[in-house]
Structures are given as structure tokens and as C-alpha cells.
Amino acid sequence: MLKLTNFSVQDILQNINVQFDEGKTYVIMGKNGVGKSTLIHSIMGRPDLETEGSIEFLDQDISELSVDERARLGIFVSFQTPVSIPGLSNFQFIKQSLDIKMPEMKAKLDNFKTLSSQMNLPADWDKRNLNTDASGGEKKKNELIQLLMLDKKFAMLDEPDSGLDVDGIKTLVEQLNNWKNKNNTLVVVTHYEQLIQGLNPDAVIVLQKDTVKVGDKSLAEQIFNNGFDNV
Amino acid sequence: MSIENLDNKSYKEGFNTEVEVDSLPPGLTEQTVKQISQIKNEPNWLTEFRLKSFKRWKEMSEPDWAELNFPNIDYQALSYYSAPKYRSKDDIPQEILDTFEKLGVPLHERDALLGIEKDSKVIPTVAVDAVFDSVSIATTFKAELEKHGIIFCSISEAVQQHPELVKQYLGSVVPYTDNYFACLNSAVFTDGTFCYIPKGVRCPMELNTYFRINARNTGQFERTLIIADDDSYVSYLEGCTAPAYDENTLHAAVVELVAHDRAEIKYSTVQNWYPGDENGVGGVYNFVTKRARCQGVNSKVSWTQVETGSAVTWKYPSCVLKGEGSVGEFYSVAVTKGKQQADTGTKMIHLGKNTKSTIISKGISFGDSTNTYRGMVKVNPGAHNARNYTKCDSLMLQDSRALTIPYVTCENNSAILEHEASAGKISEEQMYYLQSRGLTEDDAMNCVVNGFCKDVFQKLPLEFAAEANKLLGVTLEGAVG
Lengths: 231, 481
Description:
Shape of chain A: globular
Shape of chain B: globular
Low-confidence stretches of chain B: 1-9, 108-121
Number of strands of chain B: 24
CATH architecture of chain A: 3-Layer(aba) Sandwich
Distance between the termini of chain A: 27 Å
Oligomer: heterodimer
Number of strands of chain A: 12
Number of helices of chain A: 8
Structural class of chain B: alpha/beta
Strand content of chain A: 25-35%
Mean pLDDT of chain B: 83
Strand order of the largest sheet of chain A: 6-9-10-3-11-12
Number of domains of chain A: 1
Largest interface: A-B, 25 and 24 residues
Largest sheet of chain A: 6 strands, mixed
Distance between the termini of chain B: 6 Å
Helix content of chain B: 10-25%
Largest sheet of chain B: 12 strands, mixed
CATH superfamily of chain A: P-loop containing nucleotide triphosphate hydrolases
Number of helices of chain B: 11
Number of domains of chain B: 1
CATH topology of chain A: Rossmann fold
């Protein structure tokens, strides 16, 4: 699905080689500040991150594509701290992103309301301003709703657990496992043991400045027991 | 896409209409004023009003305190009257009807609707008065409105049919001495809208005047007068466009509103006068005096404006809150780009007890433009418990100038005045977030700007909120980069 070859981002990450396959779930771990968010956002194509090396999505070189072009190809990122956009409501945002036309409007709105109620969000969540006056956890839930409603192939979630309470985590795990299928790929940056267990990843990737270490779930256990320095 | 790509082609109302006109030669003398009055067959008191104003105007000088920079206007080089030639209202030249059709303003078809008896369950929602240059061309649904006792017609017609009303109110809110441009208008105004809502009547449809400037080198001096008697309600909207000419066109209108006891007037403007080209050549000078007197107890006037056009915009729709418990509101989105300049805002004058005013002003500027909000909140000694809430936000795209100049005078210490302001740019972070969901750069910007303007757009009548949204989208095209 997505392949990075000798991929570098400014002086933060050097020569990273990693491949993400269809139908699989990956967990990315790494020391604070090593560049996990940077990696994710450079895959998304954030304009201020200069990259070198090759990045291929569905066998296509996407290094020259803009953020919105990559999004339309099916790449999604869930932000660690989603930005607020006053005056734009949560549902309106989905409406714009999906370009929903009138005939489907009611069905989509109902879908939105069902999802937000499943996540214990307030009843008027569809009308609330995007990420404005919302708690950290609420913003994360909003990101999840977007993932579930937008039709994406390659989803990268940046610490989706932060700010969520125990029930929130449970719902997150349920919804993500539901979303996974043999045609999409899920990549989650997290340090939360419960989440890693619940997602049952196919591979755990430990990101370092100039290399990646790949292993299975036991690699995560190893880190929890002994820390990063013994990887 | 860069700002340099903007040109006349993107102002789709920039076409002009070839039609035969009656017009006065350029120049302004006492004779010109008399001629205008004569052409319109006006009663003596009105001719006197004009002459008095003209005399005073000659003694005044153009104000220069605004944050505006424009070449001197040669008042003798303009023609003060230009009207399309036709015999009777049934004989309107097709070209003019076509113009309004092209601009999306429904006229003739709606008139035809009224004539079909069996279709009486078609309830009209908008009545239109169309003004082409100096003359009101057609007013739809007058008969329907008359059934409610509502008068909605051109000012010229009102002078003939309802002179007592016009005489009572003309100049009562904006005296001819008020300012240079209002004084000029009082001398040479040609047409505009007159509206009277009788006691207890809630106007059943939106009243809409559409102003179209067509002739070159003319001044446009509309005069609008709306009176809402006790316990009445009316919602009125004006739309404005003009062709893309190289010369500047002066538009100096006066709008007076009077609201009696418990009456409410909603006045909305969507202005898209030709803004001039990217070098600042041509464009309309929009110098307008708009004022409401909230005369009655618990009366209310709301001004809502979306200003995207004009080379230079200079206007302060205001409310004089005289009646006890009266309410004044001002909601504005003003966009400037290219070489446009705007110095606009409002004045809320609190005179009576328990009066309330709300001001929400959104300024968006980009390119070399200058966007100034100038607002006054004045609380007089007798205005016990006055309340004001003011919020001015500026959004600057690229390098542009935005200024906020609030004047606050409070002479009664039971008043509470709140003022909030913000100035900023569209953040990269917001753009990135929106684009990461597949929105293009232009769509992402539209989202942020629409969100920014939402508080104001919500105040527009429903049909026009959508239009305003579209207009904003077109105006912002190419603003990124």
C-alpha cells in the first residue's frame, strides 16, 4: 500500500525504509521527539516538511502531490491536537470533505449522529463548531468519526488515545477493529498498552532517527518492560 | 493562482446595456437642479428642498478625514440625470428586462404571475423594485401589497401619490445639512424606493430593490425612505451592481428609516459594485449615508451588509436609539482586494432609556487593499441602562491593511459597553487540516472565511444568505498564493 525508500525529512529523519501492506495493522512507537508525528505528516504531505527519497502509494510516486491530492487518493491522518475552525460545524466539515449532495444528506447526518452518540458525545455535536470549545478527548473522538465516515484506504492515527477515558478507549478499539478490512491499512502511533493489545497489530515499528526496527507484538512488550534503549 | 490573475473578466456583472436614454449634459448648476425637478413634475415644496440643499452644498467642502485615498471628483464632469427612454411602464425596452434577467433579478415573469387568476395559491415571497440608472423601471407585486395597505413604490411615484408622507419624513433622519454627500444627494436625487408599512401589519414578503448603474459618467443619487408604523414589520434587501467602466462612477445615496412603537425594520444590503481593475482603474465610489431613527418604544432596526465591491466604500449605517427600549443592530462583512479601499462601520447613538445595540463587523482584506472599521458608540446622559456589544474581527490574507478605529463616548454610568476585537490571518495549520480531508486550497480558504463570516450571514434573509455565500466565494477566487 505505502512504501518509503531512503526517505528523509529535513534533519529529523534520515534514510527510513519501511513498507505498509494492505489489510494490516501497524503500531508505531518511539522515544518522545524522535519524529513519529513528523513521519506521519510528511506522508500526508505537509508543505513545510521537506523530504527526500521515495514515497510510493499504491505503486505510484506521490512525492510531488499536494496534501489534498494525497487525501483524495485515500490517505488520512488523525491529528494529535486538531486545530479549531470557528464558524464551521462538525457535520458541515464532513459535508464538505465528502461533498455530500442533497439526496444523501439525511442518511449521512443520521450516520453522524449515531456515531457521535455511540461515543458519548453531546446530542448537538453535529452543530458544534469544529474543534472549538471541545475537550481533548472530544476532539479525538471527532477525528475518529471522520475516519469512519470518510472513505479512506490508509489511515494514520497520531496518539488517538490521549485524552480518552477507559470507556473511550474501549469504543476506540471497537470502532477501529470494525473499520479494518483486507483492503485498508491502519497505522497507529501510541504508547498505550491497552490500545496495542486491543488492536492486535500485525507489526510493531520502533522509529529511530535513521532506522526502523520492526517486530511483532512482543516487541511492544519488550519496550514496556525494558524501555527503548534496549531495542 | 496569484492575485495578478484577477481581471475584469471575473466581475461577471461587468457588461453594459445599449439602450436609448434621456439625459442631461454634464454639469451641476441651479439650473440642473430645477430641470431635474421639472422632468419629474415635482411639487414646489420638493423643488425648494432641492434648491435649499444645492445652495448649502456649494458652501460645504468635501470631507477628508477618512483612511481613503482617491483622486478629486470633478463634479462638473458628471451628468446628474440619465434615464432610459420609453413611453410607458408597459413599454419597457427588452434590453433592460434582459439585463435584470441576466443578473438574476425576476421582473416580468412575476408580473405575469399576478395576472393569472387560477394560480392564486402561488404565494409570492419577494417583491422587486428595479432601478436602472436614475429611474425605477418596475415594481412587482404592488397590487398584492396594497391589499395590506403597504406602499412599495419608487420615490418619484410616492411624491406624486403620497406627498404628505414623503413631506413628513424626507430629511427627518438625515437632514440636508448632515454631510457633503447627503447634501448633494438632497439636491439631485432622482429615484429610489419608498416604503410605508401601516400599523399592525407584518409585510408578507421580502421587499427587494435592485440597483443597476449603466450609463457612463453619471452620478447615481438614490434616495430611499422606509417607514414602519406602530407594531409593523418589514424585511428589505438591496442589491447593487454596475458595468466595468474605466472611469469612476459616483454613487452617493441616502437611506432613511423610521421605526415607530414596537416596529421592526430589517435592512440588508448585498453590494457588488464594480471594484475597478487590478490597477485600481475605474470602479464605483460608494459614499452612502444610511441612518435609522428608532423613534418608538421597543422599536428595532437591524442593518446587515455584505460589501464586496466598489473601488472606494465610505458608509456608516447607523441607528439613533430614541425610543425607550429600542434596539439597533449592525452586522457587516466587508471584503477588500486589489486596490479597493473601505472605510466603513456604524454609529449607535443611545438617547432613550434601556436601549441596546449590537455591532458585529467582519473585515477581510487582501492584496494592496485597505479595510478600515470605524465605529461609534455614543451614550448620552439620558440613556440609562444602555447596553452595547461590539465585536470587530479582521482577517488579513496576504499583505493588506486593516484598521479598527472605535469611538466610544459614555455619559451615563449605568451603561455597560463591551468591545472585543481580533485580527489575524488564516493559519497554515487550519489550511493543512482542511486540505488533509481532501478540500482544495480554494475550498479550504472558503471554509475558513465562511466560518469567519457566519455570525453575519446568519442575519441575512434565507434566500440571500446563499447568494452572499456564493458572492464571497467568487470574490475570494485566487486569493490564495
